[in-house]
Write a structure and sequence with these properties.
By secondary structure, the chain is an alpha+beta fold. It has three domains: 35 residues; 234 residues, Rhodopsin 7-helix transmembrane proteins (Rhopdopsin 7-helix transmembrane proteins, Up-down Bundle), CATH 1.20.1070; 151 residues, Alpha-Beta Plaits, CATH 3.30.70. It contains 13 helices and five strands. Helix 3 runs parallel beside helix 5, helix 4 runs parallel beside helix 6 and helix 11 packs across helix 12. The longest helix has 37 residues. The protein is elongated, with a radius of gyration of 32 Å. The protein starts with a helix and ends with a strand. The relative contact order is 0.08.
Length: 432
C-alpha cells in the first residue's frame, strides 16, 4: 500500500483520538465547574444577556441587508428568529435582575423564557434549512418577508405553548448527575442543526455558512454545560451564557464579512464592464477627472489612448456573436495584460476601448500602443483582429475631458479603415 493510502487509513483513527481527548477534557472541565464555588454577579449576568440581545438585533439587521442583496432565504428566516430570541432574552434578563434585587436567589425553578427562546432559535435554524432546500432563492421578496414572518411567528407560538402548557415548571435537581435535564431538548435540536449546516458546507462556502455551523455547535456545548448547573449564577450557568453570546458574535461576524464582500462586489460591478472586467465608461470619466486635477497640481502630463475593434460586425456575421464577444474580451485581455499598475484600461463603448496613462507623454503613449499591437497580433487565437488607435496628451491636446476624448477620437477615425500596418507616430495608430 502506498503512503497516501496509509495516510487515509490513519486519518479516521487520528480524528477519533482527537475527538476522544476533547470529550474527556470537556467532561473534566464540567467536573471542575460543578465543584467550583464561583457565583456570578447578577448585574454582570444581566449585562451579558442584554449584550447578547443587542448582538442578536444587530445580526438581524445585517441578515435583512444580506437578504435584500442576495434573496437568500436562510438570512431572511434567521433575521426574524434572532429578533424574537433577542426580545425574549432581553425581557428574561430584566425580569431576572428585578427578582434578584428583591432578594438572593432561592428555589430551583428554571425560567420558561430561557427554554422558549433557546428552543425557538434552534427550531428556526432547522426551519431555515428546510425552506432553503425547497426554495433556495426568493423570487418575490415582499411576499417572502410576509411568509417568513408567519413561519417564525408560528414557531414562536408553538414553542411557547409547549413550555407554558407543561403540567409543572422544570426544576433544578442540585444533587443529580444532571441537574437540568430539560436543557438536553434544545441541545438535541442544536445537534440536528449542527449536522445540517455541516452537510451544507459541502456546497455552500460563504462566511455566514461557516459561522452558522460553528454557532450551532457552540449552542450544543452551551446547553450541555448549563445542564450541569446546580444553582442560578454558578460557574456552569455563567459559562453556558457566555457560550450563547459567543455564538451570536460568531454569526454576526460571518454576516459582516459576507456583507463586506457583497459591497465590494457591487462596487466592482458598478465600476467595471461585465464582459471584459475593465473599467466602464463612468469609472473612466472619474479617472480622467482625477488625472486632470493631479496634473494641474503637479504640472505633469498624462495620455489617453482610444481603440476601436475593426470589423466586429463582419466577425459576428461570419463566426457568430459568441466569437464576436470573445473578440471583445480578447482586446480587453490584451489591454489589461500590457498596461502598468497605475494605468486604467476601460471599455469605452460597444467595440471601443480606452487606456488612461498617468505620468505619461507622447512617447510613453506610443510605446504602450506598440506593446498592445504586438500582443494582439501574437495572441494565438482566430480570427485575427485589427484595431485602430488614437491618442491625446494633456494639456497639449486639450485641458478638459471633452477636448481630450475629442482629439483622440478624431485621430482614431482618421486612421480607421486605412489598412496601414505600422504604427504611425503622433496621435494615430493602427495594427492588423
Amino acid at each position: 500500500m502506498n503512503s497516501s493510502g496509509q495516510a487515509l487509513r490513519r486519518f479516521p483513527y487520528r480524528a477519533v483520538i482527537a475527538a476522544s481527548i476533547a470529550v474527556v477534557a470537556y467532561a473534566a472541565l464540567l467536573c471542575v465547574l460543578r465543584a467550583s464555588t464561583y457565583m456570578a454577579d447578577p448585574l454582570l449576568s444581566t449585562y451579558l444577556d442584554m449584550a447578547g440581545s443587542l448582538i442578536a438585533f444587530t445580526f438581524a439587521a445585517n441578515a435583512m441587508m444580506r437578504f435584500r442583496g442576495t434573496h437568500d432565504r436562510i438570512s431572511l428566516m434567521l433575521a426574524f428568529g434572532f429578533v424574537l430570541a433577542g426580545l425574549i432574552e432581553a425581557a428574561m434578563g430584566m425580569t431576572f435582575y428585578r427578582s434578584m434585587l428583591a432578594g438572593p436567589p432561592h428555589g430551583n425553578e428554571i425560567s420558561l423564557g430561557w427554554f422558549a427562546g433557546r428552543t425557538l432559535l434552534g427550531v428556526v435554524l432547522l426551519a431555515a434549512l428546510f425552506v432553503e432546500k425547497r426554495m433556495p432563492v426568493s423570487r418575490e421578496p415582499g411576499k417572502e418577508i410576509a411568509a417568513a414572518t408567519m413561519i417564525v411567528g408560528a414557531v414562536a407560538y408553538l414553542t411557547s405553548a409547549f413550555y407554558f402548557m407543561l403540567p409543572r415548571v422544570p426544576k433544578i435537581q442540585p444533587h443529580s448527575w444532571m441537574p437540568r435535564p430539560w436543557d438536553l431538548l434544545p441541545a438535541a435540536i442544536y445537534i440536528a442543526a449542527t449536522i445540517g449546516y455541516g452537510r451544507r458546507l459541502r456546497k455552500a462556502t460563504t462566511w455566514l455558512d461557516r459561522s452558522l455551523f460553528l454557532a450551532a455547535g457552540l449552542n450544543v456545548i452551551c446547553h450541555i454545560t448549563i445542564s450541569q448547573s446546580e444553582h442560578m449564577l454558578d460557574a456552569c450557568y455563567w459559562l453556558g451564557h457566555v457560550l450563547m453570546v459567543m455564538s451570536y458574535v460568531v454569526v454576526l461576524g460571518g454576516t459582516l464579512l459576507d456583507n463586506a464582500q457583497l459591497f465590494d462586489q457591487v462596487s466592482r460591478l458598478a465600476a467595471s464592464d461585465s464582459l471584459t472586467g475593465l473599467a466602464n465608461h463612468r469609472h473612466m470619466i472619474e479617472v480622467l477627472e482625477g488625472e486632470i486635477e493631479r496634473s494641474k497640481r503637479t504640472g505633469r502630463s498624462f495620455a489617453v489612448l482610444l481603440f476601436d475593434l475593426d470589423g466586429l460586425k463582419k466577425i459576428n456575421d461570419k463566426y457568430g456573436h459568441l466569437v464576436g464577444s470573445r473578440a471583445i474580451k480578447r482586446v480587453g485581455d490584451v489591454l489589461s495584460g500590457t498596461c502598468r499598475a497605475i494605468d486604467t484600461p476601460a471599455r469605452y463603448g460597444g467595440d471601443e476601448f480606452a487606456l488612461v496613462l498617468p505620468e505619461s507623454g507622447e512617447r510613453e503613449a506610443e510605446q504602450a500602443a506598440t506593446r498592445i499591437c504586438d500582443r494582439l497580433q501574437n495572441d494565438g487565437e482566430e480570427p485575427k483582429l485589427a484595431i485602430s488607435m488614437g491618442q491625446a496628451v494633456y494639456p497639449m491636446d486639450g485641458t478638459t475631458i471633452e477636448q481630450l476624448l475629442g482629439a483622440a477620437d478624431t485621430a482614431l477615425y482618421q486612421m480607421k479603415g486605412m489598412g496601414q500596418k505600422k504604427l504611425r507616430l503622433r496621435h494615430v495608430a493602427a495594427c492588423l
